[in-house]
């Protein structure tokens, strides 16, 4: 048996302190960001869940009575909820594919060689930089029923016989805003997809041309698989973003005419803002979040299957 | 020669022309707004906007009557405050995520990504109640805190990906030369990711400048950022489109200019993760 040399205390202490420091340091560097997010994101979220189980109307702040799931069962009976849900589904199902297709076309064009490409690439993202309020204002002016340029153009070309009040007509209001949102969001897709396109090695295309593959087949077998990862991420991010987005609607129509442009987040927001009913508003916000979460999980599962 | 001309023509038809059409769609609404803002109010309804006889009248009225300068100052304070809070909290966290391995690292990093996806409406109600209880309603601080809910997670992600791009051997070299961990971070890594810090800061600034719903809910009277001011104008000056569009152009100007300046670096940073993933 050989005796292991035992280091004396003075040597242990610095080594141990160094090890402790190594363990503590990463957490110490992290803690400010984590603690602040806990305080300003997670704590409020829990509070929303808590408020949704209470009767809480802001002009009667003393009254905060536990009502359990009452608000949630009221939601199922609420006609406005179902209208808003239908609009939210339409809203996502039209806007996201429209943004993606327009973004794809733009990215494919920007990936070609032409003299003014840098200029085009810089200008294409302008809608992305504009405040939603300004976008809403700009398009409200375009859609204006008396002096708007859209009616003017369509009348001159002869597509319309009389001007349409795009935002005041319940049949067109939602679609008019969807066009605005498509305009706002497609540059994001264009930029993401362009980055994906540029990561596909040129040699793939050269080899395919040598083998006589048509450009359509090249697109199908090289380009699409090459950008599938980016497309997957971009669609996920945009779906969430479009679903949540309510500022453009809020400024353009405020949900009207009637309930024609209500979506779920807007309904929850208006319920709290105009009716000051924070209990019911919170329940609506929670319901919307859970539905969105369900869609995201479903999407992630299906895409994972498609990849494997 | 003939072949060259033919392929140029083909390129113009298949690339330049469609690209130009998309750009018309992209820029048209913005240019239309700019043109409207430069047209005298009385001409607007008789002849409509036109490129001949442009006037600055609407802009002069904007600053004289509506008091837009005050609103721009509010926006500036809120946006700068958010940049400072967002960057200070996230840079050290990003360094930690990039350089150390510890338990729950993936979970923690993922939660920062997830926060960015939470519906704003889920946070805006409790934040309103909270600010009311703290007596912070209608202060710059309330808006800075609210905007930080978006800024912190975003910049943690951006900065982590920037620092990941700086080789670890640099920290190690500095530490062999006698630097401690912290001074290696401050003296070596931070200067190297300065471009990343600036780009992230500018993006936070733009987002906070453009933010509207928090500004409307938590501010409004004393503190009225430019987005709220523009929206209020829509209500007050309903048919004065010249004045309204001038407000829109001015309100969007700082963010638009900043965006054009940093777009290349920013887009690179934003898309990096997605392409790899």
Automatic annotation (TrEMBL), chain A:
InterPro entries on file: ABC_transporter_permease, MetI-like, MetI-like_sf
UniProt keywords, alphabetically: Cell membrane, Membrane, Transmembrane, Transmembrane helix, Transport
Membrane-topology descriptor: Multi-pass membrane protein
UniProt subcellular location: Cell membrane
Keyword Manganese among UniProt keywords: no
Membrane-spanning residues: 24-46, 89-110, 122-142, 173-197, 218-241, 278-300
Residue span(s) of domain ABC transmembrane type-1: 85-301
Family: Belongs to the binding-protein-dependent transport system permease family.
Listed name of the protein: Carbohydrate ABC transporter membrane protein 1 (CUT1 family)
UniProtKB/TrEMBL annotation, chain B:
Gene Ontology terms describing biological process: transmembrane transport
Transmembrane segments: 12-32, 76-95, 107-129, 141-163, 184-206, 241-262
Leader sequence residues: none
Gene3D superfamilies: MetI-like
The keyword Transmembrane helix is annotated on this UniProt entry: yes
Organism per entry: Cereibacter sphaeroides (Rhodobacter sphaeroides)
GO cellular component annotations of the record: plasma membrane
CDD domains recorded: TM_PBP2 (cd06261)
Family annotation (Pfam families): BPD_transp_1
Keyword Transmembrane: yes
Highest taxon listed in the record's lineage: Bacteria
Topology in membrane: Multi-pass membrane protein
Residue ranges of domain ABC transmembrane type-1 in the record: 72-262
Protein name stated in the entry: Carbohydrate ABC transporter permease
Compartments in which it is found: Cell membrane
Family classification: Belongs to the binding-protein-dependent transport system permease family.
Keywords linked to the UniProt accession: Cell membrane, Membrane, Transmembrane, Transmembrane helix, Transport
């Amino acid at each position: 048996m050989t005796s292991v040399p035992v280091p004396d205390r003075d040597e242990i202490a610095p080594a141990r302190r160094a090890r402790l420091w190594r363990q503590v340091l990463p957490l110490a560097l992290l803690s400010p960001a984590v603690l602040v997010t806990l305080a300003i994101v997670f704590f409020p979220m829990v509070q929303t869940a808590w408020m949704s189980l209470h009767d809480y109307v802001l002009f009667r702040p003393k009254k905060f009575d536990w009502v359990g799931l009452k608000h949630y069962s009221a939601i199922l009976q609420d006609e406005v909820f179902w209208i808003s849900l239908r609009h939210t589904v339409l809203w996502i199902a039209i806007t996201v594919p429209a943004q993606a297709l327009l973004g794809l076309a733009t990215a494919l064009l920007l990936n070609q060689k032409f003299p003014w490409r840098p200029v085009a690439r810089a200008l294409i993202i302008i809608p992305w930089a504009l405040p939603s309020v300004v976008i809403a204002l700009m398009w409200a002016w375009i859609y204006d029923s008396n002096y708007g340029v859209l009616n003017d153009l369509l009348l001159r070309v002869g597509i319309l016989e009389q001007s349409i009040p795009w935002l005041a007509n319940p049949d067109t209001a939602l679609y008019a805003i969807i066009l605005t949102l498509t305009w706002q969001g497609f540059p994001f897709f264009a930029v993401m997809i362009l980055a994906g396109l540029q990561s596909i090695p040129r040699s793939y295309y050269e080899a395919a041309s040598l083998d006589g593959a048509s450009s359509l087949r090249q697109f199908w077998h090289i380009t699409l698989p090459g950008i599938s990862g980016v497309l997957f991420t971009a669609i996920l991010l945009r779906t969430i973003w479009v679903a949540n987005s309510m500022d453009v609607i809020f400024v353009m129509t405020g949900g009207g005419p009637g309930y024609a442009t209500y979506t779920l987040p807007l309904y929850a927001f208006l319920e709290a803002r105009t009716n000051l009913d924070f209990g019911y508003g919170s329940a609506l916000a929670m319901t919307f979040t859970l539905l969105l979460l369900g869609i995201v999980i479903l999407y992630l599962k299906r895409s994972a299957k498609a990849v494997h | 020669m003939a072949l060259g001309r033919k392929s140029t023509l083909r390129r113009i038809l298949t690339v330049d022309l469609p690209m130009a059409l998309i750009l018309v769609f992209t820029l048209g609404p913005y240019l239309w707004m700019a043109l409207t803002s430069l047209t005298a109010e009385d001409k607007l309804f008789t002849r409509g906007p036109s490129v001949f006889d442009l006037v600055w009248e609407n802009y002069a009225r904007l600053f004289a009557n509506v008091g837009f300068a005050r609103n721009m100052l509010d926006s500036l304070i809120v946006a700068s405050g958010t940049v400072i809070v967002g960057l200070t909290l996230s840079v050290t966290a990003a360094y930690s995520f990039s350089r150390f391995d510890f338990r729950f690292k993936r979970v923690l990093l993922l939660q920062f990504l997830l926060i960015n996806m939470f519906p704003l409406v889920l946070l805006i109600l409790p934040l309103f109640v909270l600010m009311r209880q703290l007596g912070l309603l209608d202060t710059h601080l309330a808006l800075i805190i609210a905007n930080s809910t978006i800024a912190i997670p975003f910049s943690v992600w951006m900065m982590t990906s920037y620092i990941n791009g700086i080789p670890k051997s640099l920290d190690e070299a500095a530490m062999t030369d006698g630097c401690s961990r912290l001074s290696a971070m401050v003296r070596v890594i931070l200067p190297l990711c300065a471009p990343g810090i600036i780009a992230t800061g500018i993006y936070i600034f733009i987002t906070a400048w453009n933010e509207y719903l928090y500004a409307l809910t938590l501010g409004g009277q004393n503190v009225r950022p430019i987005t709220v001011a523009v929206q209020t104008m829509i209500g007050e000056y309903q048919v004065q489109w010249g004045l309204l569009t001038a407000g829109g152009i001015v309100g969007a100007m700082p963010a638009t200019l900043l965006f054009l300046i940093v777009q290349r670096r920013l887009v690179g940073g934003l898309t990096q993760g997605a392409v790899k993933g």
